Amino acid sequence: MTEPKRTFALGAYLTGSATNGDAWRAPGEDVDADITFARYRDYVDLLEQGRFDSIFLYDNVLPVPDPAAVADTPALPRWDTFTLLAALAVTSRHIGLIGTASTSFNEPYNIARRVASLDRLSGGRAGWNVVTATGGGENFNLPRHPDHADRYERAHEFVDVVTGLWDSIAPGALLRDKRSGRWLDPALVRPLNHKGRFFSVAGPLNAPPPVQRRPVLAQAGASGPGRDLAARIGEVIYTAEYDPAAGRAYRADVLDRAARHGRGEAHLRILPGLAPFVGESDDDARAKFETYLRYLDHGDSLRGLSAYASLGVDLSAWPRDRPIELGEVAETNSHKSRQSLIVDWIRRDRPTPRDVLRHFTRGGHRIIVGTAREIADDIEGWYRTGAADGFNIMFTSAPDGIRDFVRLAVPELQRRGLLRTDYTGRTLRENLGLPDPATP
Ligand SMILES: Cc1cc2nc3c(=O)[nH]c(=O)nc-3n(C[C@H](O)[C@H](O)[C@H](O)COP(=O)(O)O)c2cc1C
């Protein structure tokens, strides 16, 4: 077998509700993807035409104490991630299906079973985005969101139980031999008998054995403990970086931590988020971006970003054209990484709230506006200089934003030899060029 190497990765980020997020009122935007499966089916068709490796479904289950706070944004409702992916497994053929499930509000047995079932249904295309969750304990019998350090400790043990359960039925265990009457080979079935700080799980897993043996693990932690988890178990790693130097520093740090676990570039694909506005010309791209800005609810977006990054001030209340001044910012228990990213940028560049809206999505991801060539230059530059292994494309418009990217940017990425022109692998793991981490 040849040694796997670093290859370019391209993922698509779709939220579980209206995929276009904040500018949902712009002409042509779908507004019913949260209840209409056909919308997702069509997006995934387009993304397969664009030879994306995977789609990634974000998820959270935060309490909403004041429904008025979400009255103008399509944050609610949200599909159950793995139910939606199971339906997409049937309508798609090649693309990887990565869903989010939190280690704070689930049991590892249930997640191991759910992801194994998706892997089998999709012929080996399942991935699990491991999150400790940015909030939501109040919906799960907890008085508040558990502490950051505890969440990560539980996450490590959770993932070990899940992978242990996936390994609990070795390949070849299922005989189904009518003649001998042997259904399975007991020597190839291994109970887990795990007893740890958080979990006590006997095993083996009662689920169809995953086609990939181990479905792909995605992670996005970016605080110290978050990076440690990503470095130890993450294969696709999502991040938010605003310039190539920051991207390189982040990637070098994660690779350094990964080396302590005997893992290297071949084992991880680090994908910053990127929100593109691509046009036939600069003017066309800019017109699309201006349409987005026109329909963006500026107050809501700034409020969302301020809360998401725990800035301690509400930028929507700040004069739109006055440089932002931040006082002391208390460290958050939620999105630590996003907080430092935005805080550092504000301190360094002294942007106005209007600049913030032009640079970042509400979720704190970088916006890029340009022709296919300009966008491919940017993507290629980050990839070739080790600032990223590819990108997680955050569509701010659907279906047109997806269609534009596939029609304009994808051929340019293919011409440069970055992106495949056809799927070469059968499974998500193969298409990402990742090694098989399962023990024999
Ligand atoms: C692209 C991307 C997607 C993420 N998706 C989710 C998600 O679906 N659910 C969630 O609770 N957190 C999600 N996160 C947040 C991370 O899991 C993590 O909490 C965050 O990056 C902060 O890192 P830290 O917990 O190490 O401070 C995402 C982060 C990024 C960059």
Automatic annotation (TrEMBL):
<keyword id="KW-0288">FMN</keyword>
<keyword id="KW-0285">Flavoprotein</keyword>
<keyword id="KW-0503">Monooxygenase</keyword>
<feature type="domain" description="Luciferase-like">
    <location>
        <begin position="30"/>
        <end position="387"/>
    </location>
</feature>
<dbReference type="InterPro" id="IPR016215">
    <property type="entry name" value="NTA_MOA"/>
</dbReference>
<dbReference type="GO" id="GO:0016491">
    <property type="term" value="F:oxidoreductase activity"/>
</dbReference>
<keyword id="KW-0560">Oxidoreductase</keyword>
<dbReference type="Pfam" id="PF00296">
    <property type="entry name" value="Bac_luciferase"/>
</dbReference>
<comment type="similarity">
    <text>Belongs to the NtaA/SnaA/DszA monooxygenase family.</text>
</comment>
<dbReference type="InterPro" id="IPR051260">
    <property type="entry name" value="Diverse_substr_monoxygenases"/>
</dbReference>
<dbReference type="InterPro" id="IPR011251">
    <property type="entry name" value="Luciferase-like_dom"/>
</dbReference>
<dbReference type="InterPro" id="IPR036661">
    <property type="entry name" value="Luciferase-like_sf"/>
</dbReference>
<protein>
    <submittedName>
        <fullName>LLM class flavin-dependent oxidoreductase</fullName>
        <ecNumber>1.-.-.-</ecNumber>
    </submittedName>
</protein>
